[in-house]
Amino acid sequence: MALMITNDCISCGACEPPCPNQAISQDGIYVINSDRCTECVGFFDEPQCLPLCPVECIVLNPDVQETPEQLLVKKERLHAGQAVQ
User: Fold this and answer.
1) Is the dihedral of CA 44, 38, 11, 13 positive or negative?
2) Which of 3, 4, 11 lies closest to 55, judged by CA?
């Protein structure tokens, strides 16, 4: 599953910098592009944005069901040809 940000977002911006896929952007409140969100699979053991959100408004997106394997394939597609740390 990709993550999503609920309307409880206070637009603090804490979630955006640690995203390795540049999936988070501001559109009034912050939003997560589900086409780019891999829940940090392939980079970290857990999503990096979750513990940084002071209002806990980042949740699993029920409309985007993906397995860890699918998330890893998405990560590889997003970063094809790039040296990723």
Assistant:
1) positive
2) 11
Question: Quick one: pLDDT at residue 1?
Answer: 76
CATH of the domain at 36: 3.30.70.20
Residue 84 domain-assigned (yes or no): no
Per residue, the 3-state secondary structure of the chain, as one string, reads CCEEECCCCCCCCCCCCCCCCCCEEEECEEEECCCCCCCCCCCCCCCCCHHHCCCCCEEECCCCCCCHHHHHHHHHHHCCCCCCC
Average pLDDT for the chain: 94
Domain count, the chain: 1
Does the residue 34 lie in any domain?
yes
Q: How confident is the model at residue 83 (pLDDT cuts 50, 70, 90)?
A: low
> What phi and psi values does residue 70 have, to the nearest 5 degrees?
-65, -40
